[in-house]
Specification:
Elements: H1 8-22, H2 41-54, E1 61-62, E2 68-72, E3 89-94, E4 109-111, E5 119-120, E6 128-129, H3 135-138, E7 145-147, H4 156-174, E8 183-188, H5 202-205, E9 209-213, E10 220-225, E11 227-236, H6 252-261, E12 278-286, E13 290-299, H7 302-322, E14 327-336, H8 340-343, H9 348-359, E15 365-369, H10 374-380, E16 387-388, E17 401-403, H11 404-425
Helix pairs in contact: 1-4, 4-11, 6-7, 9-11
This protein binds zinc ion.
């Protein structure tokens, strides 16, 4: 049994991979209707398929959506008690980056043995990753830190996850004595525009359980997401020449304002955090005759979600009485659900991840995401997929940074996890 640890060579190779990947522009585009939303994402996908083949994954290939699937076959000898029983484990990361911040022409800066100073970014010295404003920098003294030059994002979200998974595959190729079950690799496109699982064929992927490596701090395992619905309130007023409108005009704009005014202040995104739910009016368009207001409804539990929706319906009912001439319709649509509901049915997928973190000598931190993930959608498509940290900080910003040591820990966590699945299947 080999010791599970990346050595200097493994780390250097991981750094080289990460630096190589972030220099490929893979921004996705929410206004595009094609799949992938931008053709350039395939540039990285193609590179990854090639590198996977070079590492021995003979079936590694990119499909028309830009997804890369590959297999690392089990190396358990037929006599091993877990042979044929260890489940296929999927490892997933996304290749695309956020579109709101410049993502092409990334010039990665590698700072070795970080000493606790403020990081002034050389391409735009006004951009300073300040030690005081970034509490995690204190946890990364002595680490290798990677930033952009301050004019673009870095793309650690999620190329850190991609580089970690590639490093796991390379480590396994170098350590044939380490026994593991079947592994499936999945690199996806368009996660940042919410379409990361649109073409994900769970059956073809063929994993029994999967993990995304995306975001967050060392030792964090995320097994909860919001339950999310969207609501649309459509108001039909009645327009009359305003000079002769007395007793006749029904102004949809005022009706809409009255509804928004009635929303409880303690349940807005700007007044909530942690596990608190919210109802968020985020878009209103129209005129005196017709107004449409869009809402996001978010909560960790289904009943809390329903309570927010009831609050909206109550506000609408009250306003209807004030404006009897207005027609007001409420339409609610389901977006996604908390993956914890699914994971509760087979909690080993998270328990083993916690055990893997402990074997690194770290205390696992369970986190709930105030958002949705590809893993949440996959969990409801039948593939339980909690998230393991990838290490990136200050996502979607030109001040994005990542610690190479936290990336190495993520790769080592995955290796421990693979070992635990074999142990527990024997
Ligand atoms: Zn991400």
């Amino acid at each position: 049994m080999s010791e599970i640890a990346l050595d200097v060579k493994d780390r250097n190779e991981m750094l080289a991979r990460f630096v190589r990947y972030v220099q490929v522009d893979t921004q996705s585009d929410e206004n595009s209707t094609t799949s992938p939303s931008t053709e350039k994402q395939k540039g990285l996908s193609r590179m990854l398929a090639e590198e996977l083949r070079a590492l021995g994954c003979a079936d590694a290939a990119m499909d028309q959506w830009g997804y890369v699937f590959a297999t690392v076959p089990s190396n358990l000898p037929a006599t091993h008690p877990a042979a044929g029983k260890a489940p296929t484990i999927g490892l997933i990361a996304h290749v695309d980056t956020y579109q709101g911040t410049l993502g092409g022409g990334v010039k990665p800066q590698v700072i070795e043995r970080y000493d606790g100073r403020d990081l002034v970014l050389p391409g735009d010295p006004r951009q300073v990753i300040a030690f005081d404003a970034n509490p995690n920098l204190a946890r990364c003294k002595g680490h290798t830190i990677i930033t952009s030059d301050g004019t673009t994002l870095l793309g650690a979200d999620d190329k850190a996850g991609v580089a970690e998974i590639m490093t796991v595959v390379a480590w396994l190729a170098r350590h044939p004595e380490f026994e593991h079950g079947p592994i499936r690799i999945g690199f996806t496109t368009d996660e940042e525009v919410g379409r990361g699982t649109e073409h994900f064929d769970v059956a073809a992927f063929g994993a029994a359980y999967a993990y995304t490596l995306d975001g967050s701090d060392v030792a964090e395992i995320e097994d909860e997401t919001f339950c999310a619905d969207s609501a649309t309130v459509t108001i039909d007023g009645h327009d009359v020449h305003p000079g002769y409108a007395k007793g006749k005009l029904v102004n949809a704009v005022r009706v809409g304002a009255a509804i928004v005014e009635r929303l409880e202040r303690e349940f807005l995104p700007e007044t909530t955090e942690d596990r608190q739910p919210y109802l968020h009016p985020y878009d209103a368009r129209g005129d005196v005759t017709k107004l449409e207001i869009k809402f996001l409804v978010r909560a960790f539990a289904d009943d809390e979600l329903k309570q927010r929706e009831e609050a909206l319906r109550r506000a609408v009912a009250e306003v209807k009485e004030l404006f009897p001439g207005a027609r007001i319709a409420v339409e609610i649509r389901e977006s996604y659900r908390n993956m914890a509901y699914k994971i509760a049915g087979d909690p080993r997928v998270v328990d083993y991840a916690f055990e893997a973190v402990r074997r690194l000598g770290l205390e696992p931190v369970r986190r709930a995401i105030r958002g949705g993930t590809d893993g949440a959608r996959l969990s409801f498509m039948g593939l339980l997929t909690p998230n393991i940290w990838a290490g990136g900080q200050n996502f979607h910003s030109v001040q994005e940074w990542v610690s190479l040591e936290w990336m190495a820990k993520a790769a080592e966590c995955v290796l421990h996890l693979l070992g635990i699945w074999v142990e527990r299947s024997a």
